[in-house]
Specification:
CATH architecture: 4-Layer Sandwich
Strand order of the largest sheet: 5-6-7-8-10-9
Bound molecules: fe (ii) ion
CATH class: Alpha Beta
Number of helices: 8
Number of strands: 11
Largest sheet: 6 strands, mixed
Shape: globular
Amino acid sequence: MIINTSVSVGAKTPFRMIHVSDTHFTLADSRDNSDKNRIATKRRHIFPHSEAVRDTAVRLSGELGCPIIHTGDHYDFLSHPNLEEVHRFVTENDVLYAAGNHDFSHYLGEETENEEYKLRSYREVQSLHKNNIRTDSRVICGVNFVVLDDSYFQFHPDHVKFLLGEAEKGLPMVLLYHKPVACRELLAFAEEKGRVGCLVCPPESCFDGKDEEWIAERRPDEVTLEVAELINSLPQVKCIINGHMHENFTCLTDTGVPLILTANDTVRVIEFT
Ligand SMILES: [Fe+2]
């Protein structure tokens, strides 16, 4: 599915970008152990659109002459062919990539996924990418595209200084990160879909009745609250682009900033004006 979206951010001249997210390639081969191959077989049918979405994004990027934004989970779990796939995708195309939780996952939920877990594969994963997947920025037609990493529900201490530094450039900013920060309209949508657990900084009421592990993973730390506050208050932030929910959704955040989520079966062509 291809969706066209237009968003006014104060670009010097109008331009387009392709947005895809959560392609979840489920590749494994003889270089991977039997558990990885079992996971690949078990989960392949859940993500039948991986190749079509990638191929359509690549084709449109070429035809329209515009870069691709990928907001994480290009593959489902760490395997030899999945890592080769993402490396090929980001090196053969002009891609701005933000990390998703699956980018660091070995066996999908075999243990708690936290910063310590992420660091076991972070260096290897980062080495496959052209842009810094934790903090990066790139100016296109006077618009500053800023990459953050909240793949495990928390922002990183580096993000406060980094975001303030990017804001000081005085350019309109489009933020790219994997998991959406809760706002009223998105929360209502997530509740309808039974996906409240996808949101960063959910309201306190969302923790009622949840088990300790669920709460520990999602309760925002001080840094995450500070970054979320900056995202909602910096006047330079003109648009936010996320993935993770595997749903197409657009709304205005509580502070009136356009929020765009793209599903894993969709290629979104975004015109920035
Ligand atoms: Fe995903």
